[in-house]
Amino acid sequence: SASFNNLVNHEGVTVSSGDFGGKHMLVIFGFSACKYTCPTELGMASQLLSKLGDHADKLQVVFITVDPKNDTVAKLKEYHKSFDARIQMLTGEEADIKSLVENYKVYVGDKKASDGDIDHSTFMYLINGKGRYVGHFAPDFNASEGQGEEK
């Protein structure tokens, strides 16, 4: 199962995957101080939600931090302002995050003292409405796919 419990969103509300009413989830792991891949993926997810139009309510995009020590609710709330408002940004206890990272088989390296960067895998994970893993996409996932050619 790809479900989760007891995480806290960018508004300070405790959430679990069951709170999303059986929606499919697009799960992204990262951290707010990430300079390149996380903002790119969140930007793609924001574009995807826009392109889905009326169908966007069937998908919940979830960003889960791999740096819960530094990604406080306040930091995630500020970071959230740069992306689609429908995205949920989640943090939690280190043990809960570590368990999720292991469950999803996310690579997370040690934090670099020099610049605070954390090497991490950059897949987007698709979870069905029953909380089961469907598949994952590489970082070059194109948000325009599935909507036909753009004019």
Concise structural overview:
This protein has 3 helices and 9 strands; from the N terminus they run βββαβαβαββββ. It is of the alpha+beta class and 151 residues long. It has a single domain, classed as Glutaredoxin (3-Layer(aba) Sandwich), CATH 3.40.30.
Keywords for this entry:
single chain, 151 residues, alpha+beta, Glutaredoxin, seven-stranded mixed beta sheet, two-stranded antiparallel sheet, 23% helix, 26% strand, globular, disordered C terminus
Descriptive account of the structure:
By secondary structure, this protein is an alpha+beta fold. It has one domain: Glutaredoxin. The chain is 23% helix and 26% strand. The protein has helices at 37-52, 73-80, 94-103; strands at 7-9, 14-15, 24-30, 59-65, 88-91, 108-111, 118-120, 124-127, 133-137. The strands form two sheets. Strands 2-1-5-4-3-8-9 form a seven-stranded mixed beta sheet, sandwiched between helices. The N and C termini lie far apart (39 Å).
Number of strands: 9
Shape: globular
Instruction: Report how far the terminal alpha carbons are from each other.
Output: 39 Å
What is the rounded Rg?
15 Å
Number of domains: 1
Mean pLDDT: 85
Uncertain residue segments? 143-151
Disulfide bonds: 34-38
Organism: Anaplasma marginale
Binding site for Cu cation: 34, 38, 120
InterPro entries: SCO1/SenC (IPR003782), Thioredoxin-like_sf (IPR036249)
List the helices and strands and how they pair.
Layout: E1 7-9, E2 14-15, E3 24-30, H1 37-52, E4 59-65, H2 73-80, E5 88-91, H3 94-103, E6 108-111, E7 118-120, E8 124-127, E9 133-137
Parallel strand pairs: 3-4, 4-5
Antiparallel strand pairs: 1-2, 1-5, 3-8, 6-7, 8-9
